[in-house]
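Need a sequence for this fold. Nothing fancy.
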């Protein structure tokens, strides 16, 4: 009986180890799918109407887009430069943007878009810039 339990425990341990041994490209792809299926539908932030993620596996890059109901003008652009980094920090704190992927070399290009899909603000998250957001 103990031998049987030991064999089952060993088999479960091996399966867990194999499942957890994903490379960065697999994690990138999994993150994009999870983001679009679970995070994006329930995402709430001021002025954000839609958010999506796209993965670029060959470039080790993820693009996050935040579409807003804001017009493209200087006042909204200036406000976005202040509020958008705060939103990114909140997402990092909640692990909605995983630090582990950034530390593994994945670059996040994060766009805050006006109602006509022009860029209000853009941030690039990679190893060096991550420290600025975690302050």
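Here you go.
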């Amino acid at each position: 009986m103990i031998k049987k339990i030991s064999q089952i425990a060993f088999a479960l341990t091996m399966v867990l180890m194999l499942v957890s041994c994903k490379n960065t490209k697999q994690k990138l792809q999994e993150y994009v799918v999870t983001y679009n299926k679970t995070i994006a539908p329930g995402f709430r932030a001021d002025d954000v109407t839609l958010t999506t993620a796209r993965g670029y596996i060959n470039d080790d890059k993820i693009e996050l887009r935040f579409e807003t109901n804001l017009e493209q003008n200087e006042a909204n652009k200036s406000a976005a430069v202040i509020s958008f980094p705060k939103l990114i920090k909140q997402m990092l704190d909640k692990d909605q943007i995983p630090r582990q992927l950034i530390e593994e070399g994945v670059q996040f290009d994060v766009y805050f878009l006006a109602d006509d899909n022009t860029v209000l603000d853009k941030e690039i998250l990679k190893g060096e810039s991550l420290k600025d957001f975690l302050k």
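For context: The chain has a mean pLDDT of 87.
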